[in-house]
Design a protein that fits this description.
The protein has about 220 residues and is an all-alpha fold. The protein is built from ten helices and no strands. Pfam families: VTT_dom.
């Protein structure tokens, strides 16, 4: 009876809701979601940013008393999942080329693939791989795109590790820091997560603005 009740609670999880995922699967769920979102095209809809931030928040013991996570295992799961997933997506892209994306019927996935290819062409491999970590959907499709477009293994690995560490550990620690400093922050969790997601886009927005200023300056000189 107890086993049936537990299984029922797992099957009832809402995969689009960070707290629901964490309540059902804990730290292990974070690692699995990070791997699926960054390594498997079917994971493009998963809530990576909000999951990392919420998980960090729940390590403080100040939010959602029904769920309590430990910071060190959480960071390990988040980082390993994000890095392994990205490398897996790249290898799939090298082997399958663009066939997987070409067969997809998802409009969001195809649009994300277009943005990923544009990032690679406009900013070069290193910068695009790092920036993509902060853009939902794009961080899913850029990895197989990089493999399909022939980005060198060493270049991809170095920069996906750099971007993955900043993204996964950074958002987790941001949630932990906020939960440690603001009492009852869980009352404002939804607006705070929205702000964090917006803030995670800052590197990309800053780079786009910088690129446009450089282009205008070049036109003025020409």
């Amino acid at each position: 009876m107890i086993a049936a009740s537990y299984l029922s609670s797992q099957l009832a999880v809402n995969v689009l809701d960070a707290r629901s995922l964490l309540a059902a699967f804990g730290v292990l769920g974070v690692g699995v979601v990070m791997f699926a979102e960054t390594g498997l095209l079917i994971g493009f809809f998963l809530p990576g940013d909000s999951l990392l931030f919420t998980a960090g928040l729940l390590c403080t013991g100040t939010a959602d008393r029904g769920v309590k996570l430990s910071l060190a295992p959480l960071l390990l799961a988040a980082v390993v999942g994000a890095l392994a997933g990205s490398q897996c997506g790249y290898l799939l892209g090298r082997k399958a080329g663009g066939a997987l994306l070409a067969r997809s019927r998802s409009r969001r996935l195809r649009e994300g693939a277009g943005r990923a290819e544009e990032l690679l062409e406009r900013y070069g491999f290193a910068k695009a791989i790092v920036l993509a970590r902060f853009v939902p959907v794009v961080r899913t499709v850029l990895n197989p795109m990089a493999g399909a477009l022939g980005v060198p293994v060493r270049t991809f690995t170095v920069w996906q590790v750099a971007g993955g560490l900043v993204w996964s550990a950074g958002l987790t620690l941001a949630g932990y820091a906020l939960g440690s400093s603001v009492p009852d922050i869980d009352r404002y969790l939804l607006p705070v997560i929205a702000l964090i997601v917006l803030a995670s886009l800052t590197p990309l927005v800053a780079e786009v603005l910088r690129s446009r200023r450089a282009a205008k300056a070049k036109e003025a000189r020409g």
